[in-house]
Design a protein that fits this description.
2 copies of one chain form a homodimer. Chain A is an all-alpha fold. Chain A has a domain of about 100 residues. Chain A has 23 helices and 3 strands. The first copy, chain A, has a 3-stranded mixed β-sheet. In chain A, strand 2 and strand 3 form a beta hairpin. In chain A, helix 1 runs antiparallel to helix 2 and helix 10 packs parallel to helix 11. The first copy, chain A, is globular. At the A-B interface, helix 1 and helix 2 of A face helix 1 and helix 2 of B. Chains A, B: Its EC number is 3.4.17.19. Chains A, B: It is an enzyme of class 3 (hydrolase). Chains A, B: Belongs to the peptidase M32 family. Chains A, B: This is Metal-dependent carboxypeptidase.
């Protein structure tokens, strides 16, 4: 059986190698590739993707997994070997359950749909994108049906990004969160508006980039195993546990853009850099889920990076970088500016408090659409109503409403958004657990020390890679199921003080 | 048969896609990869290389080539279809003739040998590298023997880089060249030494890079289909005909380093960018040979980039970039500095006139070693003697002698060097032919116009990719065989005037 396991390991490593190089080709496309390289690159990505898929769906992998079934049962569930078999089986079944004709048809549709969406956005007209979106909904339903036995039709789709999560877990959690957030947003937005003028001056790109790098190095992002480049949209990408890169973008007229996206992506990257090095080349060397990944980017970006303690240490340094702009701005003014809460239309621009309402709305719409309770043509109207109800504002057009996110238009309907809010919920939960073990974390942070927090996260989350699901990680850390309470306590405490609620 | 040809095309395109992405992974390793990425990257490169090799040696390709044999005979030899079949057959036979055990053993040895060479260089001791080099010689002989029927044992090895070239063609050409170069070097070095102090001041990196880019854009390097990055050793690399990149390095205390290596690599890149776009994704979309490739880098670097006409246009611009350093240096002083001839030990630092003597010596040693007329252990002594005879100086140690080039230590013995001098010879030959068709080229150059020359090269060389061998290209251009005379006329005329011979 050791030999069979070794064979399986070799096969998954080969696939892992191909996927890593695919990622590299994608990274290059987003960073340095000249425009003339696009056409051939698309073909090269397709070729490599096809070969990787062929390797993953090789019946020999199915046979090995079958041969290892009894052996797996004898292994402790939390052993690395059992984890490797389990995660490989999950990947394999996801890959073989779907007919390849369906995949190529759906890919083609996604690519068309994406281009039509760009046109629709330009023309600010949902109707342009609607027919494709209706087809996408059809494809999404079909995709779910390749995994029979689900409780809710969205479950197999959610499982792609958040393995083990289901509608029955998420729906009540999000409903409760929404119930508590709507009045909190109302209470905050009744207070006088905060000024963020101090972060809206002109801040030269190179200085912003240098300061951002200084910050994330201090947080613990290892630049010997990573680097930062500029892209249109920031992302984190991994080529191996020794090479986990991030990208950022800079707005010279808004200091927050690069700074917080840099910390956000560094949070993702520190997670990957913290995975057990022995998992290298296997599917265990990956984040547990979209939600757990987002919990780390949001924890570092918001709970740490937008905290008063963090800026106690970093603000004098930032002032030295921008003496003309910030020299006479006091810490409190700056702290309020970077934590300004407001009713806004665009999810990606939203603050910590309102953000989840944007996400929960999209999650609910996905369920409504999949269940057939909402028709695609009625989406813009539903969007307006829900925004009014939850955030008290209505988008004046489709561009700032239903057309704003690319997810549904380039991917599928179902499972696209829950990770963002699961991430926030988990960030609060994990941070509270870390504080319980190490009450000294906040005072360390005020001195610019982040080692205790990072080590706790590494020990309890990072090093395990994808061995445990989000639910299992929470269970191991808190002894119970996922709950929104720690996150809500965090929000109420921070914003209660900020807005004198 | 059209269908078989289409199948063949699809298969070579798949291999081409894999090889392109392999190149990208190599480029990234040399430019931006953090040090921590090295270990996994090596494995990923090996995996992708193995898969590409498996695809190339798939018996189905052999069968298709067999099926197409009669069809190919009916095609005009200069048709693209015939070219595609011919070049694919060449690749295929090279790949299948060698047992895979031999390949992996030889690769392993090459990698070991390279590391030992680095150590030997550090310790300045050939004896450290000798045992590995002796094995390399053995492997090189075995490799040649997988291609029986050769006239000279070096022929199959030369064929890797310079298809169609043989010892019987190169040896007399190089012997004659040496006979003419040795006295030319003697005559020049008897003259008073030229001062190159003006290019040895301090020139900031960013200004050097900006000026270099301005120059190669003007020459015709298309930055929409290319880019330039920094590496330890400059190179040109292609990911598709729409993405042909170059790298450079800068010495702030020597203006020549970045400038001429930039033009050199841009020469390689313009060749690739000029290949018929219809060849994209096939083995035709490649340079004809190492020699023809080098003819283009050297033509643009030396015949164009070190000419007086070129600097008539560019020198006032360069002076504007470095007014403090060059403002009071006249064009003639600068022109002499960048064309300074001297007896020197290191091939890569050598000037236009002495360079070929370094190369011919190495070529001759490869033949001597392969023929068994020279033992590896006697190489350092032979090196010293030959340097004395041809260049009038002797290396004081191994580092500046037999250990200076990595070729033999990381690759094989045989076929490693002829391309450099073939390139020089061809650069003279092609340039003279271009002048015959377009006598206006030099006066255009003085105005900073390079279009006529570039179009002539594209029409006669670039667009054909690898369809014709070097010999066929020469035959098509001049109606005769390769000859050193145009190149020697060029050297004698330029350096005769410069050194008043």
């Amino acid at each position: 059986m050791k030999e069979k396991l070794e064979q399986l390991r070799r096969r998954v490593q080969e696939i892992n190698d191909l996927e890593s190089i695919l990622s590299l080709a994608f990274w290059d496309q987003a960073t340095y590739m000249p425009s003339g390289g696009g056409e051939a690159r698309a073909r090269q990505l397709a070729t490599l993707g096809r070969i990787s898929h062929e390797k993953l769906t090789d019946p020999a992998i199915g046979q090995l997994l079958e041969d290892l079934r009894e052996y797996e049962k004898e292994l402790p569930a939390d052993s690395d070997e059992a984890g490797l078999i389990r995660i490989t089986r999950r990947m394999y079944e996801k890959a073989v359950n779907i007919p390849s004709d369906f995949i190529s048809e759906f890919y083609k549709h996604q690519s068309d749909s994406y281009h039509v969406w760009m046109k629709a956005r330009e023309e600010n007209d949902f109707e342009v994108a609607r027919p494709n979106l209706e087809k996408t909904l059809e494809y999404s339903r079909q995709l779910a049906d390749f995994f029979p036995g689900y409780e809710h039709i969205a479950d197999p789709l959610i499982d792609y990004r958040d393995p083990g999560m289901t509608v029955s877990v998420i729906r009540p959690l999000f409903a409760e969160l929404r119930k508590q957030l709507v009045p909190l947003v109302e209470a905050i937005t009744e207070k006088p508006e905060v000024s963020d003028a101090c972060v809206r001056q002109t801040f030269p790109q190179d200085k912003q980039l240098a300061f951002g790098l200084e910050v994330i190095k201090r947080l613990g992002y290892d630049l010997d195993r990573g680097r930062q480049d500029l892209t249109a949209h920031p992302f984190m990408i991994k080529f191996s546990l020794g090479d986990v890169r991030i990208t950022t973008r800079v707005k010279e007229d808004d200091l927050r853009e690069a700074l917080f996206s840099t910390i956000h992506e560094a949070g993702h990257a520190m997670y990957e850099q913290g995975i057990n090095r022995e998992y290298e080349g296997t599917p265990l060397a990956d984040g547990a889920s979209s939600g757990v990944h987002e919990s780390q980017s949001r924890l570092w970006e918001n709970i740490v990076g937008r905290s008063r303690g963090f800026w106690n240490y970093f603000y004098p340094r930032l002032q030295k970088v921008f003496p003309g702009e910030l020299g006479s701005v006091d810490l409190d003014t700056f702290y309020r500016a970077i934590n300004k809460v407001e009713r806004s239309l665009i999810r990606t621009d939203a603050d910590e408090v309102t953000y989840n309402l944007h996400v929960i709305m999209r999650f609910d719409f996905e369920l409504d659409l999949l269940e057939g309770r909402l028709a695609v043509r009625d989406l813009p109207e539903a969007w307006r109503e829900r925004m009014k109800a939850d955030l008290g504002i209505e988008p004046p057009d489709d561009k700032t409403g239903v057309l704003q996110d690319m997810h549904w238009y380039q991917d599928m309907i179902g499972g696209m958004f829950q990770g963002y809010t699961l991430g926030n919920v988990l960030s609060g939960l994990f941070y509270e657990a870390a504080l319980k073990d190490h009450p000294e974390i906040p005072s360390e942070m005020e001195r610019g020390e982040f080692g205790t927090l990072r080590r706790w996260l590494t020990e309890n989350i990072y090093r395990h890679g994808s061995k445990y699901t989000a639910g299992e990680l929470v269970e191991r850390v808190t002894g119970g199921p996922m709950t929104i309470e720690p996150y809500m306590r965090y929000l109420r405490s921070k914003y209660g003080e900020l807005y004198e609620l």
